[in-house]
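Work Package 3 (structural annotation) set out to generate three-dimensional models for the target panel prioritized at the project kickoff. During this period the team completed the workflow that converts sequence records into C-alpha cells, so that structures can be stored uniformly alongside our sequence database. As a representative example, we reproduce one entry of 294 residues exactly as it appears in the project archive.
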Amino acid sequence: DAIQAENDIIIYDGTFNIDTGDDGITSTGSISIGNGTFTFNCDGDGINSDAEIFIYDGDFTMSVGDDAIHGYDLIQIEGGVINILESYEGIESLTIVINGGTISVISTDDAINATVGGGQIHGPTYVSLGGTLTITGGIIQVSSDGDGVDVNGDAVMTGGYLIVYGPIIDSESTIDYDGSFKISGGLVIGVGSDGMLQALSTTSEQASLVYANGETHDAGSTISLTDSDGNVIVELSALKSFEAVVISSEDMINGNSYTFEVDGDSYDFTINTTVTSLGTGAVSNTEGGRPPRG
C-alpha cells in the first residue's frame, strides 16, 4: 500500500502520484479528502476504507485493478472531479451518497455498486444483502461491462445528472435495484441491454420512460426526446451499442405530449402514468429487483 493507516486518514490538500502493486490509500478507519490532485495507478483499490470515505473536493485520475473507491460503510462525495479510467468496480459501499462533483467511471464490472460488505450472495435463488444510493446533485457518467448502477436495496434521486452506458450482454443491467429507485428531481439517461431491463419505480414523483423494441442499435445512434413544442429535452449520440433506453427528466410532465426517437424510429406519447413503456420489448421490473438468478 502506498498510504496506509490503522486509524483515520485526513488529507487537506497536496499533489499525490500513487503507483503501487496494491491499494493506493487505505485505512481501517475513515478517510477524508478536502482537496488535492491525485493520480492513481494501482493493482488493487485506489482508495479503500474499512469504514467511511468523504470526498469534498479535489482532482482524481484513477487507473486501478480492483475498486477505484471502496468503503465498507459509506462513501459520500460532495464535490471534485473524479475520472476513473480503468477499474473492476468504480464506486462501491453499503451506502453511497453523491451530493455534487463531476464523476466519470469506466468499469469491467459494476460502475456504481451499493452493497453490504462489498458482496452479495448468488445461488439457486438471488439473495440481496442490502445497500442504498442517494443522489442529490452532481454530474455522473458511467460506462460498464457489468451493471451500470447496482443497488442491493433502495435508490433515491432528487437532483443531478446520471448518464449510464450499461452492459451489452443480457445477464447484466443498465440500472439494477432490489428495492426501489425513486426519482423526484434531476435527469437520468440509461442505455444498455434489455435482458435484465428495469425501469425506474412507479412510486416515483417524477415521470420516466422505458424503451425496448427487440432490436440492437449501434454505437453512434441518436436518441432524442422532445416536447410538443419541439423543445429538446434529451439528445445524445450513444457511445455503445444498446437495446433499451430509460429516461427521466423534470421536464416530463403528466398530461403533456412528447416524441421519443431512436435511429429514426419515432414514438409519440402522452404522459398519463409514472412510467411510460415504448416499444414491443419494454417489459420490465419497476419494483423489487431482478428475478432469481444463479
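Confidence is low (pLDDT under 50) at residues 118-124, 289-294.
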